[in-house]
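ugh finaly. both done.
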Amino acid sequence: MINLTEVATQKLQGIMAEKGLEGYALRVFVSGGGCSGLSYGMTFAEGPELGDQVMECNGVKVVIDPASFPYLDGAQIDYVDSLMGGGFRIDNPNAVRTCACGSSFQTAAGEQGTPCSR
């Protein structure tokens, strides 16, 4: 299960409305790469693909492919706006090491990034 903060929900709904993506889902995934081994990714999808985990968080549909789900289970997505700019941040309890940029991580099992199929 993934959680979206209220701020992230509002930002996502605003982006989706602005781009005419009503009815779309947020696809969250993990792929190999980044300084710590695995990287987060987010995009919009028309709907789930075969095998996807589908959930609804604060009115936003979220889909996660089966290879990414174990890495993301329990994660929280937030939106942070600061003087240096804004962006989405993923707080992941499965990550034991993260890169300074916050977009890549390593797990306790030491996964260093075998590309996930999407």
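ok and the 2nd:
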Amino acid sequence: MRHLFFLLCLLLAGCATLEPAPVGPIGEAFHLSGRVAVKYGSEAASGKISWQHDSGSDELLLSTPLGQGVARIVRSDGMVTLTTSDHKLYQASDVESLTEQVLGWRLPLAGLPDWVRGRATPGVAAKTRLDQAQRLAELRQSGWLVEFLAYKGDSGVPQQLRLSRADVEIRLVIDQWRNAP
């Protein structure tokens, strides 16, 4: 299945550039959409991401650059499910092991809600480096290196991130933010 995902993404590679939506302060609950590129080992893929997050749950949709769903990941009540485009359902207690098992690479969902807000996860050891504007430029946490490549204007909201760990690199471009009520 993971090879099919990467083959589809590579065949349909190409990303439309969208103008980011205006952003206010990022709340705990949010929705973001954007583009994602993943390299792991000798494999690579790119596509779109749509993510709805609140303190108790997450729902992510990974799709090809043309919008065809590849994987839907739902975290709720301490359980994670991943549904593939061919409607196969997988479950685990954490996203990282589940995405590695099914997709072949680890999605760091435990820290990602904080990292996309431009901050370290509270209560977890971290090493940071700030840029000239005193925003995070680099963060090392939970075995991941998170590089903040661009911010949306003066809002302090990251717009481009690169996450790497061992032989995995994930690039995320956030095109739209929406705070959830």
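summary for the 2nd one i guess: The helical segments are 2-11, 95-103, 112-115.
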